[in-house]
């Protein structure tokens, strides 16, 4: 009986510790999510608030005196719509080509039948730790005639050694070699095995690698303006910033306008 009581108390203490640990983890993750969401809510609230409330710095998470003047002035310009469509186009092309190049590199280098795969893998991973620098990169883009071109935003970062390593490990550990051997016995080619067997079984890693270009396009270091790439580039955060800045700019413009003759201004100094 004593042993049963001690074992029962130990089990209850372990459950209590697990619940406390789960609660602490949930609180930590909640706070971490709030640090990412609150800046967006703050910008959104400023973009929807009136000019006076924004200039008075009284807007935090909820808009005050809701107005859509900032959105109206921005969309009338037309530059924002063009920038957003441009960002969507670049992200779509970047995602498709990035997935294609990563698959074409990761799948053959994950198979032992490829001669020299270790050397090729080392060359690819070497670029993950060492880079030529900004000036050689600029000279390369200049020699390739990519300056003032949309492709300068896509080609330099289209292939990621980190994504290659993740996809290569997935192909190596999650796709059984017996499936490929049976397909070979049935007369399937390498391309048929990749498209009809490997890729349908690799939807999780394809979704993971496919989502990474969105964060890379939006939140990685600013695209090199020294390349002179065509068209403005913005993201969602910059869009909301433009809305809030437009609201403040309109208010400042109205305050700086000279008063009418019917209402003479008061002297600032008496």
Describe the structure in your own words:
With 270 residues, the protein is mainly alpha-helical. It contains eleven helices and no strands. The radius of gyration is 28 Å and the shape is flat. The chain starts with a helix and ends in a 14-residue tail after the last helix. 16% of the residues are buried.
Give the helix/strand layout.
Layout: H1 2-48, H2 51-55, H3 69-77, H4 79-109, H5 117-129, H6 134-143, H7 161-174, H8 177-185, H9 190-198, H10 203-219, H11 236-256
Give structural attributes.
270 residues; mainly alpha; 11 helices; flat; disordered C terminus
The number of distinct β-strands equals 0
Dominant shape: flat
Helix content: 55-70%
Q: What is the helix tally?
A: 11
Following the backbone from N to C, one meets helices and strands in this order, namely HHHHHHHHHHH
Average residue pLDDT: 78
Distance between the termini: 93 Å
Poorly predicted regions are 218-237, 259-270
- What integer value in Å does the Rg equal? 28 Å
Strand content: under 5%
Biggest beta sheet attributes = none
Structural class: mainly alpha
């Amino acid at each position: 009986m004593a042993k049963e009581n001690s074992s029962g108390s130990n089990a209850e203490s372990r459950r209590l510790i697990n619940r406390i640990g789960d609660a602490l983890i949930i609180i930590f993750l909640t706070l971490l999510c709030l640090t990412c969401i609150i800046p967006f809510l703050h910008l959104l609230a400023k973009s929807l608030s009136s000019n006076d409330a924004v200039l008075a710095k009284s807007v935090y998470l909820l808009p005050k005196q809701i107005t859509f003047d900032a959105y109206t002035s921005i969309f009338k310009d037309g530059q924002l719509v063009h920038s957003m469509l441009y960002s969507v186009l670049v992200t779509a092309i970047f995602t498709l080509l990035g997935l294609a190049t990563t698959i074409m590199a990761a799948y053959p280098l994950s198979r032992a039948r490829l001669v020299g795969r270790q050397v090729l893998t080392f060359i690819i991973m070497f670029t993950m730790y060492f880079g030529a620098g900004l000036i050689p990169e600029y000279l390369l883009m200049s020699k390739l005639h990519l300056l003032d071109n949309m492709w300068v935003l896509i080609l330099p970062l289209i292939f990621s050694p980190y994504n290659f390593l993740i996809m290569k490990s997935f192909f190596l550990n999650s796709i059984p070699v017996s499936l490929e051997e049976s397909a070979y016995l049935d007369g399937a080619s390498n391309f048929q095995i990749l498209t009809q067997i490997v890729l349908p079984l690799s939807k999780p890693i394809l979704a993971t690698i496919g989502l990474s270009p969105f964060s890379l396009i939006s939140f990685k270091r600013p695209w090199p303006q020294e390349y002179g790439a065509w068209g403005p580039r913005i993201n969602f955060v910059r869009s909301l910033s433009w809305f809030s800045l437009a609201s403040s700019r309109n208010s400042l413009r109205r305050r700086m306008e000279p008063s009418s003759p019917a209402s003479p201004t008061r002297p600032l100094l008496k």
